[in-house]
Amino acid sequence: MIFETEKLYIMISKCSGIYIPDIQKIPIFWLFKSREFDLKMIKQKQMKTRGKISLSKYFQEFKEGERVSVVREHAVQPKFPTTIQGRSGIIESKRGGSYMVKIKDLNKEKVYIIHPIHLRRLK
What we know:
single chain; mainly beta; 5-stranded antiparallel beta sheet; 3 helices; 8 strands; globular
């Protein structure tokens, strides 16, 4: 049910009991997808690899059409939104030292420029 209170739209979800103010600003897939695993990958890194950068991952090469997943490397500042963490996409082309990755977001295909240290090859 949606109520209008002081120009804010509040949705009351009967099944989960979550109150969400201003429903237009929140992506729809948050309501349906469990994001615990993706958020855990964002927050922490294993003890042995903390503060270290793998040079083979930093300079890894991809071909056009390869499938990759987006996994944030904590030692390097990411230049992409955290909402695509854990998503998979297809390499379109290379731009400088980074790659243009096509990711499907709901019904739209979006292109992000991501450094290869944040990408993992899928088989």
